[in-house]
Fold:
Amino acid sequence: MLQPLKLFLNCTLVLSRSCSGFVSRMRHLQRLKDDDEACREALKSGSFYLYHKLSPLLQKTSKGAFKVASLQTSELELILESVGKDKCFINESFLLGCTHNGEPQFSLDVGELERAALERECRGMFVDLRKAFFMISASESSLVSKGQAILRWHQTNGFCSATGQPTVRNQSGSVRICQSSGVTYYPKMAPVVIVLVSDGQRCLLARQAIFPPGLYSAISGFCDMGESVEEALHREVAEEVGLEVEKLQYSGSQHWPFPQSSCMLACHAMVNPDNTQVNLDKAELEEARWFTYEEIMNALKNAPLDPRRPSPGFWVPPSYAIANQLIVEWANQQRLSRNEHKLQ
Structure:
């Protein structure tokens, strides 16, 4: 069984302290999902996140950093009219969520419009999502990741798999319905396990051939039909590196938009320190090897700022990725263990 972290166990207590605000927001959001008229009304006073062929719009701040561009309804209407598009195009937006004060948030792909003209009008630029992750905050990364996933799902689910007939969305975009068969389709995420394997002193990282030079990450893979998380983790580690997991500990989860839309379920795994010989599956991985605490700390301190210009040598996924969270947690545990041994 997975052993949950204390933080995971305590999340209910944290939510209960602000339960009234959280519950009211969630019920407001559910109403917008289900009620077409309420959602259309919300479009008049929402905030919008634009994408051009799934690349989010970013703007430069006064300090030279980048942020995700958020446009109000009136701003977006003027921008659309300036590039020759009817402002009713706003109705093609999809509901993302709502802010803490209840303001609805929407995503809209404007890929059919001229990119350069839009960038001038919006005073920003459309950036590939993988690169954008290096330029914006973790909270913004989560938001634009969700926005892109929703847009992509609608772009690739326009027809019913049973009848071949077109599907029709509701206003919020929370469902698509085949009017011929009545089948309702909901946006879905595929469950993916990601695991950082340790022998107690070192951690095991691997790389695929498609990774940028020098990048190593935790082992990951899709859950097979009918598998539990535990079964998938044991299988992936055995398949990819030929090791047998003895102990698992749950860390957290993250939505991941690549290659489609996945729910990453992150865990730590322990293997027997007397049985650490890696037997690589070369159809899946290019390389896998053990790293020391010192190597990991050096990689965390020297993370590249741009994936197109990575640091020379070994580096790990950036802070927005849950693989980074696993690696940081492991490094912190190693540091605590070392300090305890010094005090003894």
Summary: The CA atoms of residues 154 and 169 lie 8 Å apart. DSSP finds eleven helices and 16 strands in the chain. The two ends are 32 Å apart (CA to CA).
